[in-house]
Each structure stands twice: as structure tokens, then as C-alpha cells.
Amino acid sequence: MNAGWSWYVIAIVALNIVGCVWLLWWTSKRKPGDPKPTDTSHYWDGDITEYNKPLPKWWLNLFYLTIIFSIGYLVYYPGLGAFAGVSGWTSQKEHDADKARDDRKLEQTFAPYAGQSIDVIARDPKALALGRSIFNNTCATCHGSSAQGAIGYPNLSDDIWHWGGSPDRVLQTVLDGREGVMPEWGKVLTGMGGPNAVDYVVAYVRTLSAPASMENNFMAAQGKSLYNGVCVACHGVDGKGNQELGAPDLTDDYWLYGNSTESLRQTIANGRHGSMPAHRPILGETRARLVAAYVWSLSHQSRTTAKKK
């Protein structure tokens, strides 16, 4: 708040306080010539008379005490423009103190799982319940409450992992996040194979999960050479991808952005940029381990269930 607005707020507050004091004082005094409190000439039902008696002194004094309290409050706490108050209180400090207190309580709950591998944590039903709660509060916004994802957000309940599904790789993904970048290849492919080059590559990519469809497929045959000239660097000759780069396996039936021809064309021509935020600064390492253990358990049900029995 700049100085001008600060003085404006101070003036408004002061005017209201002075106005309240004046109003109490003015209305509580009797002026010469005022009628008696019983002389109002207001009658109802013949025998009910309205009086105009002043407020009792004790009641008026309570109002004055309230005004004095408000002045003290404004001196002690911030409320007069940019004046911070003699206490130095702020909602930010209050929030931070409450958060620190609650975090200490939570750390006592999470402490038994500190430093444990997530596949070990996944064998503990209590730990999985904690991880599921953290997931619902933090991750479900993107991946859904069932962890099955959506267009552009990976399904975490299957066994397909673009960045690797080992306990260490899953934990690294949660802690430090991922940046998946598919470059724009539209102009490059068009320069190599003409205006239909992107469609040729789309046709060839579709055959990677169904090799038999390559037979007598002119578009796929044209797309193969283009694929080998551009796409193999990340996805490999066989289309199996590269988990170190986050390049997906093109031979399975899972498509992060959809498997329609239009979606594949857009992916190849215009590229994609998927971002998984780092949750180390958001959750801390132990809570990140718990949620990673829960996510890992979704695709390893047989291994975690066997340990529970």
C-alpha cells in the first residue's frame, strides 16, 4: 500500500472513531427546551405511552469503553493503513506458526517411513492409507481420484511408465518432477517428404503396434524412412522409446494425448510439452515417499498384497 492510500485509510478510520464519540455525546445530552421524556404524545391502544428517555449512563460508558478498546486494538494490531502495529502481527506469521506446529505433528506420524524404499513402504497398509490421502489432496487434480489420468496426464494405475517404473525412478519423478518435450517436427518432415510427410509418419507409427498392417501400406512405407531419419533418436528403431528421455514406447496401445489421427498429427507436427511439478519442496521427502509408494503399489498389486497376507 502506498503512502497516499495509507493516509486515506487512516483518515477514514479516525473520522469514524471521532464520529462515533460525537454521536454518543450529542445524543446523550438534553438541550434547553427539549420536552420531558414522558411528553412524546405517542399513544397506542389508549393506555400505552412511548417515552423518549436517554440511555443509562452505564450503557453509554460501555460504548465509550468499546471505542477506547478499538483504538488500543488499532495501535497493537495492523489496521491503520500501512502502520504495522506495535505487536508486528501479520497473518503470514500466524499462518507460518500454525503450519510449523502442524508440520511437527505430521512429522511424528511420517517419521517411521523416512528414508525407506517405496517398495518397502508399499507393504505397510497404514503407510498406503497415508499415501492415498496425500495423493487425493495433491495429485488427484491432474491424475484423477482413481489415478487413471486423462488426456495429457498419465495413467498411474497401469504398468506403462514413460520415465521408468522402478521404485527409484518413480520416487525421483515425484521428488524432482519431469519435463517431457516432444519437438515440433512438422516443418522438418515437410521439407524431407512433402506436404503429406506428417501423415506418412502417423501411418507408420500406427504399424509399430501392429506389424502385420505394414504389408501393402504405401503411406506407412513412406513414413518409415522419415521416422528413421527423425524419430529414432528418441524412440529407437523399434519404437520402444527411451525412459531416460521420457520418450514413450510407440509399440503399446497407450497414447498419452489420444490415439486419433488428428491427435497424432498434432503431436508430430506441433510437438507436446508435458510438465510434472517437483513435489520435494511441496511435500518434503518423507511425504513424497509415501505418495510414491502408493502410486507404485497401484501397478504392483500382486506384490504388495502378497506381503499383507
TrEMBL record:
Keywords for this protein: Cell inner membrane, Cell membrane, Electron transport, Heme, Hydrogen ion transport, Ion transport, Iron, Membrane, Metal-binding, Oxidoreductase, Repeat, Respiratory chain, Transmembrane, Transmembrane helix, Transport
What are the Cytochrome c domain coordinates in residue numbering? 126-209, 218-299
Superkingdom of the organism of origin: Bacteria
Q: How is the cofactor bound?
A: Binds 2 heme C groups per subunit.
Check the record and name the InterPro entries matching this protein: CcoP_N, CcoP_N_sf, Cyt_c-like_dom, Cyt_c-like_dom_sf, Cyt_c_oxidase_cbb3_su3, Cytochrome_c_Oxidase_Subunit
| Gene3D superfamilies for the chain | 6.10.280.130, Cytochrome c-like domain
Q: Where in the cell is it found?
A: Cell inner membrane
Q: Which residues cross the membrane?
A: 6-26, 58-77
Asked whether the UniProt record includes Oxidoreductase among its keywords, one would answer yes
Family matches, as SUPFAM superfamilies: Cytochrome c
Cofactor(s) required for function per UniProt: heme c
Copy the pathway line from the protein's UniProt record: Energy metabolism; oxidative phosphorylation
Family (UniProt): Belongs to the CcoP / FixP family.
Q: Which PANTHER family match?
A: CBB3-TYPE CYTOCHROME C OXIDASE SUBUNIT FIXP (PTHR33751)
**Quaternary organization:** Component of the cbb3-type cytochrome c oxidase.
Q: What does this protein do?
A: C-type cytochrome. Part of the cbb3-type cytochrome c oxidase complex.
Name of the protein this chain belongs to: Cbb3-type cytochrome c oxidase subunit
**Species annotation:** Lysobacter niastensis
Q: What gene, per UniProt, encodes this protein? A: ccoP
